[in-house]
Amino acid sequence: MKLLQEFREFAIKGNVVDLAVGVIIGAAFGKIVDSLVGDVVMPVIARIVGKLDFSSLFVVLAQPPAGTPMTLEALKKAGVPVLAWGNFVTVALNFVILAFIIFLMVRAINRLRRQAGPPEVAAEPAPPPEDVLLLREIRDSLRAR
User: What is the CATH number of the domain that holds 32?
Assistant: First the structure.
């Protein structure tokens, strides 16, 4: 029963909930970046390079069976080892764009924090006057008797 209570306290802590929200938003943001790369960036690069899509670029590492179409999906389905370097380039580009966007977001948040100034720290109460300290000492010594 104590284990269950400790787990509940752990799961309800703000940091765990914040982390869960971050993971969910990150997954959705990853889909946005995938779309940005696949639908916006890659067509522009493909226009410059002359290829339609990087993900279709590969090197066949073994002889494919006769009659197998020379597409990445068909070769993988036939069990032919394929070095799909174009797909790797696409994923790496996704990562670079995502990392750059996160960098810009963190940079903006840090700028806003600096503008807001440091959080106010509650002032410690002033130490009691000397006469109050002396009266407390007298009171404590009388109690001890």
Answer: 1.10.1200
Using CB atoms within 10 Å of the CB of residue 44, give its burial: 0 to 12 exposed, 13 to 18 middle, 19+ buried: exposed
pLDDT higher than threshold 70 for residue 52:
no
Q: Does a structural domain hold residue 139?
A: no
- The predicted-structure confidence for 86-103, as pLDDT tens digits, reads as follows 888 888 887 887 788 778
Residue 52 lies in a domain: yes
- What was the pLDDT predicted at 71? 85
Q: Which residues span the domain enclosing 73? A: 2-116
Neighbouring residues of 131: CB distance < 8 A, sequence distance ≥ 6: none
- Other Cβ atoms less than 10 A from the Cβ of 64: the count is 16
> CA 142, CA 75: separation in Å to the nearest integer?
94
